[in-house]
Amino acid sequence: MSSDLALLGVSKSFGDAQVLHAVDVALAPGTIHALVGENGAGKSTALKILAGLEQPTEGRLTVGGEPVVFGSRQAAIRHGVGLVAQQLSLIPELTLAENLILVQPERIARRGRAARLLRSAAESAGLTIEPDAKVRELGLAQRQLGELAIALAQGARILLLDEPTSALGPFETAALFDRVRALAAGGYSVLLITHRLDEVREVADDVTVLSHGRVALASPVSTVSDDQLVRAMVGSIPDVPRRGHELTGDVRLELRGVSGSGAGARIHDIDVAVRGGEVVGVLGVAGNGQTALAEAAAGVLPVEAGTIAVDGVPVTGRPERAASAGLAYVPEVREEALLPDATLTRSAVLRTLGGGGRFVRRGLVDWKAARSFTSELLRRHDVRPPNPDLTARTLSGGNQQKLLVGRELDGAPAVAVLHGPTQGLDLHASAVIRGEIRAAAAAGAAVLLVSADIDEIRDVADRILILSKGRIVDALAADDFDSARVGRAMAGLIAQTEGGASR
Ligand SMILES: Nc1ncnc2c1ncn2[C@@H]1O[C@H](COP(=O)(O)OP(=O)(O)OP(=O)(O)O)[C@@H](O)[C@H]1O
User: Fold this and answer.
1) I want to staple 302 with a disulfide (CB 3.0 to 4.6 A). Which of 119, 176, 317, 494 is the partner?
2) Taking Cα atoms as reference points, which of 222, 213, 232 lies closest to residue 25?
3) What structural domains and CATH numbers belong to the chain?
4) Ligand 1 atom nearest to 42, measured from its CA
5) Considering the entire predicted model, what is its pTM?
């Protein structure tokens, strides 16, 4: 049977840089095809070509075996190609239903009709979404489900999913994969970009590995070993250093009685104290207040009650004061912390441009010094390509993430609030960042690590808090990790004890 959608001998260059070299990928009908490879390997570029967002420099596309030219995203949509992008394409100030109207103006003009269409498309695939919620108020996981529902409402039969699980924990990932499998069984074809080998094993029928823009391996999943996949993807994975220091530091980050709302969820009466040298991990099912908690801790969220202090300095609702007290912050949505259309130099020194910042001399920014600092930062954190004059938008998602985490952990922060710091990173880069988080703690930082990735929290944290419905319902030492207990707490089956869990 001919493939639903295929790239045949596709090459792509941006200026002088060739990022795809004669790539073949064929998506068989009713199957799930994983596209994997290290950060910057060319996965998103291949997907954008399949979605009509970029045009190949050479080679061609076929749908059902027939040659097609996708001159635009609309052309791909007309051929039934739906997209859930990595850098989400939804407009934050609009609702999901309004976003559907925006991409489908000729078919639906009224909000009520768009909301109904979206809800029924979502329900038919077993997804729960809120068509009338503003995108800005949704967490990353809900935004991604919303984008998937929009693709289905547009009549997509071929789904391109760019790292749909990067913000999801194990429960939501399992639920999403159930849906995706059901869609494939119903005749949809799915191309899935992921960095997680277990996901390739669990859900995909076929796998293609890209390396430096070339196909390094293409195989049915059942006939390839993990070792072959890892070698084709990233070569090898470094070990994350275990904690080797005592936790004797003073409290450097303190949240007391914090309540507030953000990203569509409320947090209630949160007490957390993190000592220098300590990594405290926060686990929870997406949408249970993680974003609000991270934003509150970083001084970004205007909380309704409670106080936040960094080294005893009150920073409640004052992000600039938090930054000058030495707080580093990696938000869940990386676009909020980088300048997509400015040079990497500007993104790299963004947080140090205030009065007294390290590149400010007599009220003027010393751009030469800022640029050479940026070159060194890019090199140290393996951001590719390491050119400070590029814009952040032209970096691959993983390389943007490396830049952001590198910028924040650089310069010995007092406190680091990190939300999904290894989101979108390949196995090698994730291990490096986990090592950097431990190194920051060993150098005395208090780290609050919010992550959907249980393995990451187990690997890196000293202490684990479980967040459910906006409350901390359980707390345990990482050495006492107990999957059944953590699973029960995450599922909301442990009620908060009188006076709260010990934190
Ligand atoms: N618009 C652009 N202009 C210049 N270079 C670009 C542009 N878009 C992508 N690139 C470059 O193409 C290469 C491949 O990027 P791409 O986003 O496809 O990688 P990826 O495999 O999806 O990576 P990641 O896992 O980090 O998301 C990178 O080196 C990137 O910098």
Assistant:
1) 317
2) 213
3) 5-233 (3.40.50.300), 251-339+412-490 (3.40.50.300)
4) 18
5) 0.84
